[in-house]
Amino acid sequence: MDNSIGVGLIGTGYMGKCHALAWTGVKAVFGDRPRPRLVHLAEVDAGLAARRAEEFGFERSTVDWRVLVTDPDVEVVSITTPNAFHAEMAVAALEAGKHVWCEKPMAVTLADAERMTAAARASGKTAVLGYNYIQNPMIRQIGAILAEGTIGTVNHVRLEMDEDFMADPEAPFFWKNELAAGYGAIDDFGVHPLSLLQVLFGLPSRVFANLSKPYPDRPNREGGRRSVENWDVSSILFELGPEISGLMALSRTAWGRKGRIALQIFGSKGSIAYDQERLNELQLYVTSDKPSEQGFRTILSGPRHPPYDRFVPAAGHTLGFNDLKIIECHELLRAIAGEPARVIDFESGLQIEQAVHAMGQSHREQRWVEID
Ligand SMILES: NC(=O)c1ccc[n+]([C@@H]2O[C@H](COP(=O)([O-])OP(=O)(O)OC[C@H]3O[C@@H](n4cnc5c(N)ncnc54)[C@H](O)[C@@H]3O)[C@@H](O)[C@H]2O)c1
User: Fold this and answer.
1) Is 166 helix (H, G, I), strand (E, B) or coil?
2) With left for phi above 0 and alpha for psi between -120 and 50, is residue 168 left, alpha or beta?
3) Which of 45, 54, 101, 280 is deepest in the core (most CB within 10 A)?
4) Closest C-alpha to 209, from 364, 62, 86, 328
5) How far, in Å, CA of 200 to CA of 197, rounded?
């Protein structure tokens, strides 16, 4: 039996390389899945496509992604293009009978996210979104701590996601500043904290959002200026049912913050704190400690936090961002095999999109919006 799976990759930028590394590494790290065969790669420029195919180890390349999704040797398609292309590409790949691994955010409009979910349902194929942060062994450990009741009953969750790639007012306009990419900080960013909420607690039942645009225009390539179309900063109140209140703050203009996803969870018997900028550790405070010795303790990732052990046998040697993508790729392959998998598929991803658009509606109407 041919124990391999044919891979197609659309887009070879930041995330394209990340997917290529994941497809390359997953067999060596986990061992138990079909060997990915890097078959076909698509880019907008023929020279770039050929160069990336050579660098990433793909057999052939094209400038026409439709040729890739109908290639009979391709069984699963990685979609790593800008947000506006996700729906069209994912639906075409599913209709061609391929499994899909699509980067977040799922789509720009709710109608497109619904169309993608319907296509996944109709195809019977596996369709998974690129929510890599849920794969961190430390996030899994936070889930285990919550399930064991170590910090008691949770009453408040606070999330911040900050980066500074748009912090310079003179940073050039690019596709993420267009309305075609979505609301800005919420879909570019907020979907990641939402994915953490989804796996740890479930999604908010209602939201109140305020979006802001610190810099109304930016220099464009032609030497002029172009209006920024979406919102770089968002402040959101939310509720996880009647018992747990929450606060989420998002900014792409936060100087000094490079990849912060700060999560604080407060319970009746303790607290948990985590920051993606220190993704190999979490902080735990428990009231059961001797009063004179109470304080946050740091728990460092190691082989006791699976699947860390698949990468390195020694504790404290740390995993990185690309390793989370290898874990995600492994979970995708488990889902394709029909096994239980820790993934955000299109059905769950649609719920995240519903929360995103509820936030957009809340900002427009300046009121709480309930989420079904
Ligand atoms: N999961 C994460 O942590 C994470 C991080 C960054 C970006 N993303 C997501 O990944 C996606 C891509 O972002 P990026 O930062 O990699 O962007 P990027 O600009 O670095 O790369 C996008 C690539 O897609 C190519 N492309 C565009 N249109 C194409 C087409 N029609 N056919 C083939 N190739 C095409 C571009 O030429 C470019 O090389 C976005 O949806 C973004 O939200 C996810």
Assistant:
1) coil
2) beta
3) 101
4) 364
5) 5
Is the CB of residue 331 less than 8 Å from the CB of residue 135? yes
Ligand 1 within 6 A of CB of 103: yes
Weakest-pLDDT range from 127-131, 149-153, 218-222, 277-281: 218-222
CB atoms within 10 A of CB 28: 11
Across 31-50, average pLDDT: 98
Token pair for 347: 């059905």
Mean pLDDT across 254-269: 97
**Which residues of the chain form CATH 3.30.360.10?**
133-320+344-370
- The CB of 13 under 6 Å from ligand 1? The reply is yes
| 4-132 CATH pick, 3.30.43.10, 1.20.1440.230, 3.40.50.720, 3.30.300.20 | 3.40.50.720
Residue bearing the CA closest to ligand 1, atom 15: 14
Residue 370 near residue 242, CB atoms below 8 Å: no
pTM of the predicted protein model: 0.96
Q: How far apart are CA 255 and CA 167, in angstroms?
A: 6
Distance CA 45, CA 11 (A): 10
Structure tokens belonging to residue 182: 């979505």
* Ligand 1 pocket member 82 (CB < 6 A): yes
Q: In whole angstroms, what is the distance from residue 187 CA to residue 53 CA?
A: 30
- What is the pLDDT, as a whole number, of residue 241? 84
Please give the DSSP secondary-structure letter assigned to residue 268: S
Which residue minimizes the CA distance to atom 39 of ligand 1? Answer: 13
Query: Is residue 43 in contact with ligand 1, taking CB distance under 6 Å?
Result: yes
**At which residue do the structure tokens 């599913």 appear?**
94
Annotation: CATH topology of 133-320+344-370 = Dihydrodipicolinate Reductase; domain 2 (3.30.360)
